[in-house]
Fold Ig-like domain-containing protein.
Amino acid sequence: MRNESVCSNLFTSDISFHTKLGPPKFVQKDDETIYVYAGRKFALDCFLKYKIPFEIKWFRNRKQIKHKNQTFLIDHATYEDNNTIYECQIKNMFGGPVKKEFVVMIRDYPLFVNIFYDSNLNMYSIGISCSAFGKQKPNFVLEKDGHTLHGFNETTEFIKELNQTLFRVNHFYGMVSSVNATGLYTCKISDTLKVETFHADIIEAIPPKPQIVSHEFFRFLEKYEFNILFTGILPISKNRQVRYINRIKEVKIEMKEVQYNAFGEEINSSKVIEFTLPYEQRKAYTYEEDNHPLNLFDLKLKYNIIYKIRITVRSDRGWSEFSDWYTLPSMFLCGTDVPEIFNGVSLLSFKLREKNLKYFWAREKFKCASLLTSNNYNGVCAQFNYRTCMKNITFYDGVNENAPVIAKNCIGDDHFRDMEICSSTKNIFVTFEDYGSFDAAEFNIKFCPKKNKKVYSPFDKVLASETYC
């Protein structure tokens, strides 16, 4: 019945002769990550290019919500919104649905708490910062468990981009034991019109469920190393932040190999294997506050394999529950197609220490090609440095060499910075050929889904909107 109503609306509506008929297309088609301060408003937009009647659905964390407009306005961002996934789905009589996803990240404003740990003394220091923008300085009151904290210093900074002054007070509380460091920290900001109150609760508890947020590959001497980045998922709270003071000491990993078809659909998986690794948490961050790196080099991941992994973490209070499964493509060798790049994949010309020297001594041509696909996003981006830029590499906006060329050899005149190019389709095809030498045929290119980032100011204005990898 819904399809019939869409068709009926289409033929009874006044459509301009110049309106282009076809499936719905977004004005800004890339998925977005929204960075916004707590307590501020922000907007999610699913505007379409052509004025054709459509049907729209909105989802919050994969559950449908009641909203029929192309713009979704959140008037008051709370910590409950952090890591929330919104999605709009739109279709018309010509096709669809097309989808656009938004991930909301809440910034800690205006109260920020830093926990520093001294492993030699087994003691903690607490840094508290409270800030406000405005024309005139407000009154600040800092409290711990209802008692006023004295002895803080004040700073003032004019922010040219916002044409506003940032007023901040800082208090340093330490060295103390974990028992004395825990408690409810409060910042009260008042002016002639209102009083705003913000809380941060430092607690001792079993670590919350971890979340693997991304992964990275990097070269160290004559080897490539793998890191995953993880953080803790905070309990849902609208009015306060939570900080876990207990340090992470071990990480347990469960991992399996997964096979996918050409459409990025899972078709087979191996038996799960388990590893337990010691872990030393960085001193200046709490578990849930930052993305923590975990090196996977000792797991000896294979080339041209897609893994699924999940982790649990242990502090002196016990083990957390397992994270959700995370899809981790290993490093792929040029000449191999990648049916789904997921959160990112690195493409190498060949394995380090296994360079085939015939390309050097016989001066034979080294040649390879790979097709990389992102089925869940609207484009694929490639990142590489200036040395890779100078090689005979061609990027095509499609599935083969018949597609339009995005870039060939170098991009621009600046050879001394990292480069990034993106496709306009779900595919990017890469070809490379060169006469061999020890270095000429070696490259490492990072591919990732094309996304968009919006950063809001404390005054609900978009400070930056950019495509990123």
Observations:
- The two ends are 41 Å apart (CA to CA).
- Residues 395 and 430 are 5 Å apart (CA to CA).
